[in-house]
Amino acid sequence: xxxxxxxTTDLAAAIANRKxxxxxxxxxxxxxxxxxxxxxxxxxxxxxxxxRERAKKADAALARGEALGPLHGVPFTLKDVHETFGxxxxxxxxxxxxxxxxxxxxxxxxxxxxxGVLMAKTNVATMLSDWQSDNPxxxxxxxxxxxxxxxxGSSGGAAAAVCTGMTPFDVGTDMQDSIRLPxxxxxxxxxxxxxxxxxxxxxxxxxxxxxxxxRLMSCLGPLARSVEDLSLIYRIIAGPDSRDxxxxxxxxxxxxxxxxQTLRIAFAPDFPGFPVAGDISAAVENLARQLQDAGxxxxxxxxxxxxxxxxxxxxxxxxxxxxxxxxxxxERPTSVSRWFEALARRDKSILAWDQFFEDWDAxxxxxxxxxxxxxxxxxxxxxxxxxxxxxxxxxxxxxxFNYSGHPALSMPCGQDSDGLPIGLQLVGKRWSExxxxxxxxxxxxxxxxxxxxxxx
Length: 456
Description:
Blueprint: H1 8-16, H2 22-40, E1 43-44, H3 48-63, E2 75-79, H4 106-113, E3 117-122, E4 134-135, E5 139-140, H5 156-163, E6 170-174, H6 180-186, E7 189-192, E8 219-224, H7 227-237, E9 264-267, H8 278-293, E10 297-300, H9 308-326, H10 336-356, E11 362-366, E12 382-384, E13 387-389, H11 396-404, E14 408-415, E15 421-427, H12 433-447
Parallel strand pairs: 2-3, 9-10, 9-11
Antiparallel strand pairs: 1-3, 4-5, 6-8, 7-8, 7-14, 11-15, 12-13, 14-15
């Protein structure tokens, strides 16, 4: 087996069956990091010796016949946003350069309890505030498919590390397409669960114990090289804990097996007024045809009667209000009435999409308006089929489902005319992650799945 490009599921099975030791699996990934990270710059804050000690303990536990978790001995990385005991968490922001949390976040606790061996963090945009991954502390992350292009952001380091075999999986954050867009740009899978499905506690550095400012629209979810791996990591990290009171006590179900012939899939090559590259919309239409040929019920989507541009703007406004509320002072109070008006508008959007998914198992559509673009200053116009498009529309297709809270994933689906990965988005009913993942798994053979980038 090739440990650095095995799926997480297969690697865990190989360790459990003693075909490879946890130390050997770790060393293979560390060698991969040593070889490729200098050019890609995806992995940061590498804890080489700590990870080796944890891998040795995993092998010793296996030798003693102790019960194994589903990730026993599997090395992994985490986006540089999760609070981790003994390892710094910086979000690429100089004031947090030396911040080390006093305890692991709930997500980190669950991954370690499942047997995972944390190796390192992965690079991000400064304070997670851009769709490229560049910051003053660690510099710029490059796309493995073309180093002159971005892997996306803010989970760009995570996507690039998964893509190159430097890690089997990572867990990113997604408030405006920040898992799905990098996954699409790098040709891997990424899941944004339903809002309030995975604990946000400890999902941002908090040196002073301030009130948690991010409570809506942001989600944590896995990036990996297969749907099976997304499902595995999702089931480990999802569900209520004692630190995030917003979490819904909805059962986390195993991924069922579905037949394409039983499914009703709506597709949208674009959304009204949203730009998209022709290669991406063609990929949506091509996959829709293949699904129809395979027996699924396929129809071009009649989208909810919403002003999607206004919804996109309102989503940005809500984020702004959350940030303001977290920094509120007597001289600059947040308008409570404005906040409730914004939530009431959001409710209309949520209910309209809920109604849409009464008729459809999933919506197939673009993840972003373009594939990986050239490194540039934030705000620079982006060429889409030769036309300048607003930089701020980059995450539009994904951000709509942060606003509505519906689960959505990015899945690789071929390449564009420049040889760059195309990622398509699959969206489903709220609280239906397991079924959505099962739909993606049924589509996987038609979409093509993960491909190693040239030279890796």
